[in-house]
Amino acid sequence: MPITDYTLPIDKLLPWGKIATLDNAQIWAFKQSTAVIYPFGFGVVKGATDGTVKLPSAKTDLFYGIVRAADIYEKRAGYSVSSQGYDGFPAKEVLSVIRGGSPGTPISVPISQTVADGDPVFLQVLDNTVNTAGIAGTWRKDSDGTSPSDRAIVITYARWIGMKQAPGANTLGTGYLELRMPN
């Protein structure tokens, strides 16, 4: 007899940059503002010109969305695998960027700390020299500093779904957030 209880937990995590369902998903295409590998699940901001995005570098950057995972590129260091070992879009390729989904639809992202429902959502903009997992473009629940030297952008139209543990010091874990960006 087949299993028909679809509420059973799934043991496997969604890879970074995956959205659980494409129903009502908003996925836009953008050119790269800088020729680097853009890791899946990382947050991107407005680039130097219209229609481009880049990895964040300042607290004042304008958040544009989450790099959507694609499986069309050969996995190769320096081509589609970053120097930190993260899969992503090769340099100079057009990116797929998630800008929203149906209410409650989880998007898998890299986290550098434990997150839970109700925690604020922040995008890391400057690398953290103490926690090497605090890489620009990853996600967290606080500003990673004190004003005026905060190292993260608050994302008010996102929320964490469930509690997820970071795997340990100086490593990235997998968290899920819901994103509902204004048009």
Descriptive notes:
There is one protein chain. This protein has 183 residues and is mostly beta strands. 0% of the residues lie in helices and 28% in strands. The protein contains no helices and 13 strands. The strands form four sheets. A five-stranded mixed beta barrel has the order 1-4-3-5-7. A three-stranded antiparallel sheet has the order 8-13-12, with no helix packed on it. Strands 10-9-11 form a three-stranded antiparallel sheet, with no helix packed on it. The radius of gyration is 16 Å and the shape is globular. The termini are far apart.
Record field, number of beta strands: 13
Query: What percent of residues are in strands?
Result: 25-35%
Shape verdict: globular
Counting helices, strands and paired strands, the structural category is: mainly beta
Mean pLDDT: 86
H and E order: EEEEEEEEEEEEE
Looking at how many chains there are and whether they match, the oligomeric state comes to single chain
Instruction: Outline the low-pLDDT stretches.
Output: 5-10
> Distance N terminus to C terminus?
46 Å
- Rg is 16 Å
Number of helical stretches of at least 4 residues: 0
Question: What level of helicity do the residues show?
Answer: under 10%
Largest sheet: 5 strands, mixed, barrel
Adjacency order of strands in the biggest sheet: 1-4-3-5-7
